[in-house]
Write a structure and sequence with these properties.
Length: about 400
C-alpha cells in the first residue's frame, strides 16, 4: 500500500476513536439514539459481512448459506417471540426501507394513505413531498389538536371517511404520548383500510408492555432496531402470517438485494437482550427519567408540549420558552458538550432548519446508568446555559459542569 493509502486507513481509525471518545464525553439527549452492547457491535463488524445470501432461509440464490440460514432463522424466531408476532422479516436495512416495503406490497402508484403530518411529529417516509413515499403515493395527513397537541382521533376518522385510504399509518418520530392503536383499528375497520403501525421510536416500550401493544390491532408493523430497542442500526417488519408472501416479495426482489447478514446476526442478539427481564427494568427507568425531565422543565416554566410524556421523548417549544430557535439552542448546547436536536413543532412557523422546538430523549443516558437525579441536574444545567448568551469563558465553565455530570456514568 502506498503512503497516501496507509495514511487514509490510519485517519479512519483515528476518526472512529475520536467518535468513540465523543460518545463517552458528551451528554447525549438525542431521542432516537442509544448505546448498544459490545456483543451487538462485534456481530455488526463480523465476517458475516462477506456473505451474499439473496433470498430467504433455505431458498437462497447462492451456495454456502448453511450457517447464514440458521442465523437468519434465529433472528426471525426471536423477533416473533419478542413481539408476539405471527411473522417477521429481519432483512430491512432501515426503518424507511421497511416502510417502503409495506407501501410497495399493498399500494398501487397514487393510491391513498393516511399518515401523521411531519410537523405534528410524523416522519419523512410517511409521505413527505420530497421523499419517495410522497412522490409515489397520495398521502393525506392528519394533525395533532391545535390546543392540546394530542392526536385528534375525530380528525383521523373524518379524513378516513372522506379520503377512503387503503392504509392508515399510526406512529411518530416526535410524539411524547401513548398512541391508542385500538382506536386506529376501529377507524380502519370503518373504512376498510389496513392498519400499518410504525413503532420505530417506541419498539422498546412495546415489547416490555410499557406502551399499548401493536397486536392484535396492526396488520403490519415496521420499526428500526437502534432506538429504544438498543440494537444495531437497522429495520424490521412484523405482520400477520397471511401477509408473509406479499411482504417477502416486496422486500426481495422488490426493493432490496442481498441482506446484511452481519446486521441480522446483531439484530438476533438485540432480541435476545430485549427478551431478558433486565431490559424491562431499563425501559422502566427510561420512562421514569423522561417524566422527571418533563417535570423539571415544567417547574422551570418551559413550554413542554402536551405538558409531559408517556414515553422516552420530551418536546419543548424553546422559542416560546426562551425566545431562541431550536437551531440556536442546539448549537449553544453542543458547544458545552450537551447533544440534542432541534425539532419542528406542530403548526411550526419557522423553517425545518431553524425550528421553534427541541426534542430531548432519555434512552442513551439511561443506558449509561443515569437515574432521575442525574437528569434533573442536566436540565438545571441546560436552563442555566440557555438563560444567558454564554461567552467563551462561560462555555468553558459549562464544559466543566458537563464533565462533572458525566462522571456519574457507568
Ligand atoms: N431520524 C430519526 C429520528 O431522529 O427520529 C427518525 O428516523
Amino acid at each position: 500500500m502506498n503512503k497516501f493509502l496507509k495514511e487514509q486507513t490510519k485517519k479512519l481509525e483515528k476518526l472512529v476513536d475520536l467518535e468513540k471518545k465523543r460518545q463517552f464525553s458528551t451528554i447525549n439527549l438525542i431521542a432516537s439514539e442509544n448505546f448498544c452492547s459490545e456483543e451487538i457491535c462485534k456481530l455488526t463488524g463480523s465476517c458475516l459481512t462477506n456473505k451474499y445470501a439473496e433470498g430467504y432461509p433455505n431458498k437462497r440464490y447462492y451456495g454456502g448459506c448453511e450457517y447464514i440460514d440458521e442465523i437468519e432463522t434465529m433472528a426471525i424466531e426471536l423477533a416473533k417471540k419478542l413481539f408476539n408476532a405471527e411473522y417477521a422479516n429481519v432483512q430491512p436495512h432501515s426503518g424507511s426501507q421497511a416502510n417502503e416495503v409495506i407501501y410497495f406490497a399493498f399500494l398501487e402508484k397514487n393510491d391513498t394513505i393516511l399518515a401523521m403530518d411531519l410537523n405534528s411529529g410524523g416522519h419523512l417516509s410517511h409521505g413527505y413531498k420530497l421523499n419517495i413515499s410522497g412522490k409515489n403515493y397520495n398521502f393525506i395527513h392528519y394533525h395533532v389538536n391545535k390546543e392540546t397537541y394530542l392526536l385528534d382521533y375525530d380528525e383521523i376518522l373524518n379524513l378516513a371517511l372522506k379520503h377512503k385510504p387503503k392504509i392508515i399509518l399510526a406512529g411518530a418520530s416526535a410524539y411524547s404520548r401513548a398512541i391508542d392503536f385500538s382506536k386506529f383499528r376501529e377507524i380502519c375497520d370503518k373504512v376498510g383500510a389496513y392498519l400499518h403501525i410504525d413503532m420505530a421510536h417506541i419498539s422498546g416500550l412495546v415489547c416490555t408492555n410499557n406502551h399499548p401493544h401493536i397486536f392484535p390491532y396492526a396488520d403490519f408493523v415496521t420499526t428500526t432496531t437502534h432506538k429504544t430497542l438498543r440494537g444495531p442500526r437497522s429495520g424490521l417488519i412484523l405482520a400477520k402470517e397471511k401477509y408473509k408472501k406479499s411482504i417477502n416479495r416486496s422486500l426481495f426482489p422488490g426493493i432490496q438485494g442481498g441482506p446484511l447478514e452481519h446486521v441480522i446476526a446483531a439484530k438476533a442478539q438485540c432480541f435476545i437482550e430485549a427478551l431478558d427481564p433486565k431490559f424491562k427494568n431499563y425501559i422502566d427507568q427510561v420512562i421514569l427519567n423522561a417524566k422527571a425531565v418533563a417535570k423539571r422543565f415544567l417547574e422551570l416554566n418551559y413550554y413542554v408540549l402536551t405538558n409531559g410524556t408517556d414515553n422516552h421523548i420530551i418536546n419543548i417549544d424553546i422559542l416560546k420558552s426562551k425566545n431562541i430557535t431550536g437551531l440556536k439552542a442546539q448549537t449553544i448546547l453542543e458547544k458545552t458538550g450537551i447533544i440534542l436536536n432541534k425539532n419542528v413543532i406542530p403548526f411550526e412557523s419557522l423553517s425545518a432548519n431553524e425550528t421553534s422546538g427541541i426534542r430531548i430523549g432519555t434512552p442513551f443516558m439511561t443506558t449509561m446508568g443515569w437515574k432521575e437525579k442525574d437528569f434533573i441536574k442536566a436540565v438545571n444545567l441546560i436552563d442555566k446555559i440557555l438563560s444567558c448568551e454564554p461567552n467563551e469563558e462561560q462555555i468553558n465553565n459549562f464544559k466543566k459542569e458537563v464533565k462533572k455530570l458525566l462522571s456519574n456514568k457507568k
